[in-house]
Amino acid sequence: MSAGVGSGAPKKDADRRIGRRALLVGGAAAAVGTGVLARDELAKLWWRMPGVEKARVEGAVDFRGARWLAASTGNFRWADRPDDYGVDMVVIHVTQGSLASAVQVFQDPAHRAAAHYIVGKDGGITQMIRELDVAYHAGNRSYNERSIGIEHEGFVDRPKDFTAAMYAASARLTAGICRRYGIPVDREHIIGHVEVPGTDHTDPGEHWDWDRYLRLVREAQATV
Ligand SMILES: [Zn+2]
């Protein structure tokens, strides 16, 4: 399951962005004060500041063939990844419910959690948050900022929910993500929600076949 904004009091996106910008400006000014930073380097820093948002096309998806259903803006934060935050992880989740119920809570602004993608038992892929944005899925701010979250329809204690079609579709999705961001296909970079520091979630659980999944991701990488 997707879980929250992370440790500390959740802050609105605007607060967070202003805070980060102020921090960058303060840091740059301090560096100039000591004569460390050249004028052109300062200009580059300004150029890189948050607020230079990429053009967005309504309904666009990052994985060809995915169905787009927008999550509520309460469940993610606008960002410009990978320019503002590098992406070096995929976090695997299990919904603990149906695809429809996951879609419903991800569209509920009060839920305060959502993943980028949901993979159904039939292998269908629903994208609800763009990869350039930070989804609240890992329950850990820095892991949210650096990762893509993929939910899988089903329950951790029902291995039959993890169908061949689901494994294959999810593996194609993860293979594409790894290619886009140069993420190594291994268990250091493709992790379960249970492995996120500080989480009390157990998904994807003991029935998720990691060996099979990574093999499928590697096979899919040869074709994406
Ligand atoms: Zn989870």
From TrEMBL:
Pfam family, one: Amidase_2
CDD domains xref list: PGRP
Keyword Thylakoid: no
Keyword Cell wall biogenesis/degradation in record: yes
Enzyme Commission number(s): 3.5.1.28
Gene3D superfamilies: Peptidoglycan recognition protein-like (3.40.80.10)
N-acetylmuramoyl-L-alanine amidase domain mapped to chain residues: 77-205
Reaction(s) the record says it catalyses: Hydrolyzes the link between N-acetylmuramoyl residues and L-amino acid residues in certain cell-wall glycopeptides
Alphabetized UniProt keyword annotations: Cell wall biogenesis/degradation, Hydrolase
Entry protein name: N-acetylmuramoyl-L-alanine amidase
Source species: Streptomyces phaeoluteigriseus
